[in-house]
Amino acid sequence: MIVHQGSKFEQQCWILLPNASLTCHQAKVLLGAVGVGMALISGGFAWAGAWPVLPFAGIELGLLGWGLSWSLRQSAGREVITVNPVAIRIERTANRGRVCYEFHRAWVRIDWQKPKTLGEPSRLLLGSHGRRVEIGAFLIEEEKAALLKSLRQVLSSSS
């Protein structure tokens, strides 16, 4: 998802957010509901004498919890692209911390790399002087194209 904050003091700002399907509360409710259902079903099998079902149900619930946790961590990241008359700044926040990249506006170049194989996503690269940074890796193709168009429009305008 792209949030464009527009012009403010000769500065443009885009906030890129991954598409998150669940909130933390919704993930907890889902895990609880699945856990209750699994407990009832596996408890019924254990009561009928098929007790080996219990460890497998526990493992399955643990893997579901791990998958939901991983998904929530991935959707917590964001990228903020700020373009001012002098520089372009990319701030990437993820579960590992915050990383900032800065490029001189006059020298920056935006590249759109088509996928090399079928099913692979395209890449949107921004950089200059041999340094390049991929932006919006989590965006869908239409959002990348819109971001590319918007960035090119802002960079081509004289400041």
**In which range does the helix fraction lie?**
25-40%
Name the CATH class of the largest domain.
Mainly Beta
Q: Approximately what portion of the residues adopt beta-strand conformation? A: 25-35%
What is the rounded Rg?
22 Å
Order of strands in the sheet with most strands: 1-2-3-4-5
CATH fold topology of the largest domain: PH-domain like
Q: Average pLDDT across residues?
A: 88
Regions with little confidence, pLDDT below 50 for 5+ residues: none
Count of distinct strands: 8
The CATH architecture of the largest domain can be given as: Roll
Q: Biggest sheet, open or closed, and with what strands and sense?
A: 5 strands, antiparallel
Task: Note the total helix count.
Answer: 3
Estimate nothing, just give the exact number of structural domains: 2
Secondary-structure element series? EEHHEEEEEEH
Secondary structure category: alpha+beta
Euclidean distance between termini CA atoms: 27 Å
Q: Give the CA-based shape.
A: elongated
Describe this structure as you would to a colleague:
This protein has helices at 24-47, 53-74, 141-156, and strands at residues 2-7, 12-16, 78-83, 87-94, 97-104, 109-113, 123-128, 131-134. Helix 1 runs antiparallel to helix 2 (53-74). The protein is elongated and about 75 Å long. The protein starts with a strand and ends with a helix. The chain has a 5-stranded antiparallel β-sheet, with helices on one face. The protein has a 3-stranded antiparallel β-sheet with strand order 6-7-8, covered by helices on one side. A hairpin with a 2-residue loop joins strand 7 (123-128) and strand 8. The mean pLDDT is 88. The chain is α+β, with helices and mostly antiparallel strands. The protein has 3 helices and 8 strands. It folds into 2 domains: 2-19 and 78-156, PH-domain like (Roll), CATH 2.30.29; 24-74.
